[in-house]
Amino acid sequence: MTTLQPRPPYTDAELQKLYPPNLDLQLVQILMRHGERTPVSPRFQNTGLPPFWPYCTSVRQITSTILSPSSSSLTTLQWTRRLETFSRESDSPTLALSPTSHPDNICDMGTLTDLGRQTTSFLGARLRDLYITRLGFLPPAITSPSQIYLRTTPVPRALESLQQTFSTLYPPNTRLPSPETGIFPTPVIITRAHADETLYPNDGNCRRFAALSRAFAQRAADRHNNTPDMEYLNQLIGKWMDGGKVAVDSRPRLSGVMDTINATLAHGPETRLPKEFYDEKARGIIEKIGVEEWFQGYRESEEYRRLGIGGLVGDLVERMVKSVEGRGDGVRFGLLGCHDTTLAGMLASLGAFGTERWVPFTSHVAVELFRDNMKGEGKGGVVWGFGKEIGRRPAEELGEEEKKKLEGYYVRLRYNDEVVTVPGCRMEGRHLEGDESFCTLAAFKEIVDKFTPKNWKQECRMGRGETVSLPKVPEPAGY
After folding, report:
1. Which CDD domains match (predicted)?
2. Which DSSP state fits 464?
């Protein structure tokens, strides 16, 4: 799937059902996929598809921070980026040009486009409408960003999407001067080094996960390469493939074909593939196989869940538990810039990704923590760190007093504004009475604990050189 078509805003009746009066919203964490982008590598130039796309006006006005060597003060430099490539005939340097031979607004590979900036800005506006205008959960204007936790992967399109979304969640006229300093404090955006990143499945820095990924990908190839569905694809687009054949592991891979289809479909007529690539049946086949190749491992293997997405989901739970414990500085809203593999990997690990369609650009998952307001006053607040208190300790290690702290709290997930339910929360006593989508915090934590790594880097080094065996019997997700 390509550009997301957001559902209409909730009606008043829907809103009242989604946010019942006996539950107080306490903490929201939004995981958002970046907006529309160019393909991550150039493909299908043999169809006439240009390698460089003219959809990035932001490169005409880039601002860099400059340190003055004499005074150590900071200034800024505005500059325009043009992209250089080289001639295939002579290797001579030449400017990358648009299909109409212009050198400006040229996107690099995997770059957030103007459309991607627009859709992520619209996401911020939708979040503002829900959590500020209609629910009153966040204040309409702020003098400090201290209530907002901003975190992103080190990939530029994720960072830029996060910036666009925050800028409409709180537009400039709602960011007011602090009474103490007379200025609005600079928001802090947290990133990690690639080697430490767990906000996406990090196969580049987790060898064990990479080996498991290859094994599940090979299984998908074995299952699908010689099937009527693949023959249908070959009849449509095989002539444009390297070697004349479409396969899960062809060149480009079937997932790479999907990447280019989705990126071109989101953008203008200057960057289109031949019409055969947009055949509805073909797109359904490609996305169904892609979802299996990339995400079936989360549905079937606890180790896959633990190494691929367990660190992230463990972080989410830890923040919720710290909010319950009242240890913190009042942060109530988290915005995390991530990727399609993050959203689908997390939902699949919780048994809540029940679709064969790929995650659209600018999709988001809302992880909401509620407090039963009939259970007494909650403490609120959260420390956004990585301590080892209740949050990171397995449920079976908690004492009775510690378990009592979690009572009266519920977790609910929404994917692109549609409620999803974790299957392990459907059991009696593990959800809000009358609504299985509100999982008790204790039950949600217990489910997540099973695939939260204790030492991710050490586990990533385990089994080096060993043959990878997939589970003989699937280990169901979400229980």
Report:
1. HP_HAP_like
2. T
